[in-house]
Amino acid sequence: MLDRLRQSQNEYLELLKRVRGDLEIENVAYHLDKIRNFWFRKQKLLEMCSQYLFNNSNTYFYTAVSKFNLDNSDKNILFALGNYQIFDDPILSYLEVMEKGNTVHQIERYFKKLKEKIVESIDDLIVLLEKEIPNFYVLPLRFSSSTINKEKVDIRPFIENFFIEGIDFNNLHKYENIDTVVVHEYLSHILLFDYDDPTQAIKDRLKQYRIEYSDIVPQDMNDTELFRFIIYGYFSQAMDIFLTSYFFNISPFFSSLTTYINYNVFLLNIVHNSKKEKLEHFLKMSRLTFPIWFEYDKKGVELSISEIRERAKNINFSDRIRKIYNVLDDFNTQDQLITEVENCVHLLINYESSGC
Fold first, then answer.
1. Is it the case that residue 177 has pLDDT exceeding 90?
2. Which helix (H) or strand (E) segment is 86 a member of?
3. Phi first, then psi: what are they for 224, rounded to 5°?
4. Which of 58, 61, 130, 271 has an alpha carbon 20 to 30 Å from 245's alpha carbon atom?
């Protein structure tokens, strides 16, 4: 099975090179169909990997990002985790967004930026695949999960929790004053963008969001429409990540505080409303991965993938993280978790082959 998986990576690399050679911004969707057809033909392989490979291994997937730039070594801590690492190829998820948005007005600027991001992602994937990193794979996991898993979850009821009852969601343009239609006690639990201040008034947060994302924000959306647009995007993404994690039995790896916070808010809601004990596992794992990246990133060290893997093996890094996982419920504060993770990361960074 591993041989077939490796072969799929070589085939995908060649396809991406051909697509990139013909690609123009105006006809992005046409060429992405070739990529979609390729992965449709690989669905059986991905299902088998789900059942017999990833399901029985300690596997992590880096998700909810458009690129994985290995020149920026802060993400290399991913390679200290588990037996296999996967980059969740976002291209086909972008295609789904474009197709669903064909009937939606106001987002032409967003689509233009999305097409540019797709081209950048293809360039990044080519570089990534050419490196042929052992036990590391580029797979469209979220897209494959939605294709294989026919169970669909309606995200709208969750989104509606952030608004008062009786709102006409088909006519949000009528609600010019967002303060009168949102449930304010929930707003401090989520982030709208990195460096967002959840203690500020929602109007001020949205004003700053418009500045941060001036190149994609639909100019004629009022605050109420924009808020729903933002959280619908984040929580649709969170749902896709959860279903992917659940289906493949793998753990998401985050390097964005916004994605991490909003994913955990979503997951807490699912766990609270479900009786499945297995969901507790996914909630606990989701709490662990971002602190691992954060503590490694703030050290400012530059370790290669091979150095990371060698040190992780020598100090049994995954086993140490597993021990933290096993006592996670005993921690009274987030600071306790951070301290334990920081100790593990410190040991990894300061390990030398002659010592320890």
1. yes
2. strand 84-88
3. -65, -45
4. 130
Spatial distance between the Cα atoms of 248 and 50, rounded to a whole number of angstroms:
5
Strand, coil or helix: 23: coil
Total number of domains constituting the chain: 1
**Which class for 237: exposed (0-12), middle (13-18), buried (19 or more C-beta within 10 A)?**
buried
Report whether 235 contacts 197 (CB < 8 A).
Answer: no
In a domain, 202, yes or no: no
194 with 258: CB under 8 angstroms?
yes
The DSSP code sequence of 265-311 is: HHHHHHHHT---THHHHHHHHHHHHHHHHHHHHHHT----HHHHHHH
Contacts of 158 (CB under 8 A, 6+ apart): 235, 266, 269
User: pLDDT tens for residues 110-166?
Assistant: 888 888 899 999 999 999 999 999 999 999 999 888 877 666 678 999 999 999 999
pLDDT tens digits along 208-226: 999 999 988 888 899 999 9
Residue 107 lies in a domain: yes
Decide if 193 is inside a domain.
no
HSE value, Cβ hemisphere, 13 Å, CA-based, for 63: 29
- Nearest Cα neighbor of 77 from 270, 273, 298 is 298
68 domain-assigned: yes
CB neighbours of residue 164 within 10 Å: 12
Give the residue from 324, 341, 247 showing the smallest Cα distance to 284.
Answer: 324
The whole domain housing 310 covers 2-154+232-350
Closest by alpha carbon to 187, among 175, 205, 174?
205
CA distance 138 to 87: 5
